[in-house]
């Protein structure tokens, strides 16, 4: 009973630019650099020269001073997609109930490390690439209250907005932003909600103080898919990020003549960051989020690219793209040396893994830890409520399918009435993005369930024709909607055991699905005139992630919430299996319900 339950597989117009000249912020910090020696033992750093830089015209002398006195050096620290992981956690994303098993991250540890690093850098900025909301009970219970209190103690210089910041609407976000003591910026978010809009600036200019002519501007953007994957108000729109960056940079160049260096702080995803770099002409550095991408050297397991990733812009100049994985497991940094024309000529940086080792450099900040633990007292009852024990390899859409009223084979619902008119119950479908954590082996607590399904989604049932159901899965595997050509599908799918499909990932978009079977092994033929019932969640039903065109709420019945359905599922299994305490003891393995082929 010590394997891991991977619930990452569980069911599985626009307003004119408001750009009042910001108050300059001095970021000079003249301090010792002796910490570099210790830092070298913490991380493997990527370093090199760029855009014509070399040992002869850039870099440092033996005293640690820049060789070229006309150049300027600044360090950027960054996190993204923390998703309310205010305290340390297991690498799976679940709560750190037993630190001896290995825990990572948490803002007390981030604060400890950043407070050691920043004094060693003459000039530095600490930036947040968004998605602080949603993911643990720190958000589910307190919304933005606990998060804003903790963030204000980290020393952030700026933050951009992620899509999840809009999950509870514009007013909740506006209240959160009004409580922050540092600027929040996003050039492509435009809202008629006055309280929200007045707390968002399109950019921030940082003064280099005595280094006149070295001022730096941070331009920020948020994913334009927020409208379809979150819950912004009707009057809140999201401009194309690339267009917004270009427009804002042009504005800054006209109104801030001392700015020669531009950095983009984005929440659009790694691939879109690369595209932005390729389309830009003035951006030197892109600090991103949204895609939960790990960038590191090739010895780091799971790395999806180098840190930094270097991309050529439209002028052929090198642009640096960085991001810092997810949940605050890493604090990343990059040092850049700029020449007098604003080009990067030297770089050095790496992600720092924040594990709970005996290394004093990664100890937690005691004062902030105490505050985090005080907030955590509010959900102690959920921590103590044990629902079952598991040894799962894979539990997918079985939860949703098992609790669906139309599933006559389910032992949990007590329903023995077949769907009307020969309709076929096909199974359960869930978007992968709706699952925010895993549950480790051992006791399953209510806290873990709520952290895994934090959105409060409700179960619903939808009806699809044969052709529409086929096109749903074609859209998913093609990552592009068959129903609305040109519209991206923004998540993959998790399915119940009754659904099995095979696809060719190398096939042309719109023709990748090879086969699809549903309950009782029935093959779906898109040319037949059958009706299938799918159990899913309300977010998907109303068009979220683009799996299918939005259904009107009048077209489906809302059932129980997903977290409660999971609880009922566990209790049902416990009763069925006749365990002494009535708790669920789960052991389900991967069974090939999703398969790929190559041509």
Automatic annotation (TrEMBL):
Signal peptide start-end: 1-20
Domain called 5'-Nucleotidase C-terminal: residue spans: 385-551
BP-aspect Gene Ontology terms: nucleotide catabolic process
Gene Ontology MF term list: hydrolase activity, acting on ester bonds; metal ion binding; nucleotide binding
A UniProt-annotated Pfam family: 5_nucleotid_C
Domain Calcineurin-like phosphoesterase: 75-293
CDD domains: MPP_CD73_N (cd07409)
Coiled-coil positions: none
Keywords of this entry: Hydrolase, Metal-binding, Nucleotide-binding, Signal
Family from the record: Belongs to the 5'-nucleotidase family.
PANTHER family referenced in this protein's UniProt entry, alphabetically: 5'-NUCLEOTIDASE, 5'-NUCLEOTIDASE-RELATED
Protein name: Metallo-dependent phosphatase
Organism: Coprinellus micaceus
């Amino acid at each position: 009973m010590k394997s891991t339950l991977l619930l990452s597989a569980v069911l599985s117009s626009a307003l004119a630019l408001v750009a009042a000249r910001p108050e300059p912020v001095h970021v000079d910090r003249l301090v010792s650099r002796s910490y570099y020696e210790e830092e070298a033992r913490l991380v493997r750093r990527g370093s090199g020269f760029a855009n014509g830089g070399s040992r002869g015209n850039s870099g440092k002398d033996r005293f640690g001073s820049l060789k070229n006195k006309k150049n300027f050096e600044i360090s950027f620290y960054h996190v993204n997609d923390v998703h309310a992981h205010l305290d340390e956690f297991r690498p799976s994303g679940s709560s750190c109930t037993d630190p001896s098993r290995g825990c990572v991250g948490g803002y007390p540890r981030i604060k400890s490390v950043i407070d050691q690093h920043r004094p060693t850098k003459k000039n530095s900025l600490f930036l947040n690439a968004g998605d602080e909301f949603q993911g643990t009970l720190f958000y589910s219970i307190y919304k933005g209250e606990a998060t804003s209190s903790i963030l204000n103690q980290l020393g952030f210089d700026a933050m951009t907005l992620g899509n999840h910041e809009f999950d509870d609407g514009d007013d909740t976000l506006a209240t959160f932003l009004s409580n922050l003591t540092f600027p929040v910026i996003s050039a492509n978010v435009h809202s008629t909600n006055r309280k929200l809009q007045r707390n968002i600036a399109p950019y921030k200019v940082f003064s280099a103080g005595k280094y006149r002519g070295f001022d730096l501007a941070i331009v920020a953007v948020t994913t334009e898919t927020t409208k379809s994957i979150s819950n912004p108000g009707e009057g809140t729109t999201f401009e194309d990020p690339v267009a917004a960056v270009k427009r804002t940079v042009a504005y800054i160049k006209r109104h801030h003549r001392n700015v020669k260096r531009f950095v983009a702080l984005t929440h659009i995803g790694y691939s879109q960051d690369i595209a932005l770099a390729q389309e830009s002409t003035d951006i030197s550095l892109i600090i991103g989020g949204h895609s939960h991408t790990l960038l590191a050297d090739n010895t780091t397991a799971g790395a999806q690219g180098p840190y930094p990733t270097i991309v050529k812009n439209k002028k052929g100049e090198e642009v640096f793209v960085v991001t810092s994985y997810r949940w605050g497991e890493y604090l990343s940094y990059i040092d850049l040396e700029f020449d007098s024309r604003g080009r990067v000529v030297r770089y050095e940086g790496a992600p720092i893994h924040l594990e709970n080792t005996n290394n004093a450099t990664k100890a937690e900040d005691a004062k902030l830890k105490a505050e985090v633990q005080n907030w955590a007292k509010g959900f102690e009852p959920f921590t103590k409520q044990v629902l079952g024990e598991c040894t799962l390899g894979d539990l997918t859409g079985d939860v949703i399918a098992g609790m669906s009223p139309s599933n006559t084979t389910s032992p949990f619902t007590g329903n023995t009435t077949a769907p009307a008119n020969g309709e076929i119950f096909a199974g359960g479908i869930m978007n992968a993005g709706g699952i925010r954590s895993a549950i480790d082996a051992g006791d399953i607590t209510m806290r873990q369930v709520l952290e895994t399904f934090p959105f409060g989604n409700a179960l619903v049932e939808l009806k699809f024709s044969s052709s529409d159901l086929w096109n749903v899965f074609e859209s998913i595997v093609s990552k592009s909607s068959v129903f609305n050509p040109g519209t991206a599908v923004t998540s993959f799918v998790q399915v119940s055991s009754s659904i099995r499909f095979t696809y060719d990932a190398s096939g042309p978009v719109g023709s990748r699905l090879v086969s699809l079977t549903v309950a009782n092994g029935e093959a779906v033929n898109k040319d037949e005139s059958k009706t299938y019932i799918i159990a899913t969640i309300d977010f998907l039903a109303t068009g979220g992630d683009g799996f299918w065109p939005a259904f009107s709420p009048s077209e489906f019945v809302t059932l129980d919430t997903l977290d409660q359905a999971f609880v009922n599922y566990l209790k049902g299994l416990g009763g069925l299996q006749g365990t002494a305490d009535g708790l669920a003891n789960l052991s389900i393995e991967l069974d090939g319900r999703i398969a790929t082929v190559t041509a």
